[in-house]
Amino acid sequence: MLKLIQAWGSGVRRWLFLLVLNTAVVAQATAEDAVRLPVVTVQSQGVQSTHAVTRIANSQDRTRELSELLAPAAGVQVRSSGGLGAYAEASLRGSAARHVQVLFDGIPLELAGGQAINLALFPTAVVGRADIYRGGAPLALGASGAGAIDLRPPEQAVSGVQAGYGSFATWRGAVLGGWRGGLLSLGREMSDNNFPIRNPYKPFDPADPQRLAEEPRAHAGRDQHFGLLRHSWAWGDAGMDALVYGFSQDQALPDRVNSSDPGTTLGTDLSLANLRWRTADEAYVALQWQHLREHYADPGSRIGLGDQDLRMRSRRLALSSGDDGTHFGWFGQAAWHDYHSLDATAPQAARRVRRHQLTLAGVWHARPRQALALDASLHVNALRDDVADQDPRSRSQDELFFEPQLAWRYQRAGAWCAPLGHVAYRQRAPGFVERYGDRGYITGNPALKPESLTLLDAGLACQAERLSVRGAVFAQDLRNAISFVYDARGVGRAVNTDRAVIYGLEVETDWHVSALTDLSVNFTWLESEDRTEVRAAQGRQLPGRARWQGYARINQGLPASGLPGRWRLFHEFLFEGEQYYDTSNLLKAPTTRLHSSGLHVDAGGVGLGLEVRNVLDQTHAQFNGFPRPGRSYHLSFKTTFD
Question: Rounded mean pLDDT of 569-590?
Answer without folding.
Answer: 90
